[in-house]
Amino acid sequence: MSSLDDLYRRVIMDHYQKPRNRGKLEEWEGLVINLNNPTCGDSISLSLKVEDGRVADAKFVGEGCSISMSSASMMTEAVKGKTVEEALELSHLFSELMQGKEIDESIDLGDIEALRGVAKFPARIKCATLAWKALEQGIKTGQS
Ligand code: ZN
């Protein structure tokens, strides 16, 4: 195992064990999107507050494997405060990362970078993208 893999693994476990933005918004505060990934048994309930074209708040609760939960934690951390366009752009980048595509090196993905290796394990890609799918669905719902 290379030291980079080791570092990535540590970042993933850190988010899994200490999830950021864990919780739920009240119904009047925002939208709640429930999604699951039956192939692995992951489920996520994402709360999203979209205000003035920005992701004003994002929280999640869920159960599942370390990949799905750490990805949800990283996602909420990454999109909070961003504009809807920026959040969707990041979601698009993440999906490219999961397809194993090379992405612009100058883009700072922060902790999300740690999930890069998941692209090599097709069975786990749905675990990693679950939270992002919930985000996209929430933004779509929030805009209509
Ligand atoms: Zn999973």
Uncertain runs: none
What's the SSE pattern?
HEEEHHH
CATH class: Alpha Beta
Rg computed from alpha carbons, rounded to a whole number of angstroms: 14 Å
Q: What is the domain tally? A: 1
CATH-assigned fold name: Sufe protein. Chain: A
| Average of pLDDT | 94
Ions and ligands: zinc ion
Summed up, the helix count is 4
Going by CATH, the architecture would be Alpha-Beta Complex
Approximate strand percentage: 15-25%
Specify the overall morphology.
globular
Structural class: alpha+beta
Question: Oligomeric state of the chains?
Answer: single chain
Task: List the topology elements.
Blueprint: H1 3-17, E1 31-37, E2 42-51, E3 54-63, H2 66-79, H3 84-98, H4 122-143
Antiparallel strand pairs: 1-2, 2-3
Helix pairs in contact: 1-2, 2-4, 3-4
Bound molecules: zinc ion (ZN).
Task: Compose a concise summary of this entry.
The chain is α+β, with helices and mostly antiparallel strands.
Question: What do you see in this structure?
Answer:
The chain is of the alpha+beta class. The protein has a single domain, classed as Sufe protein. Chain: A (Alpha-Beta Complex). It is 46% helix and 19% strand. A hairpin with a 4-residue loop joins strand 1 (31-37) and strand 2. Helix 1 (3-17) crosses helix 2 (66-79) and helix 2 runs parallel beside helix 4 (122-143). The longest helix has 22 residues, at 122-143. The protein is globular, with a radius of gyration of 14 Å. The N and C termini lie far apart (47 Å). Bound molecules: zinc ion. The site of zinc ion has 8 residues, from helix 2.
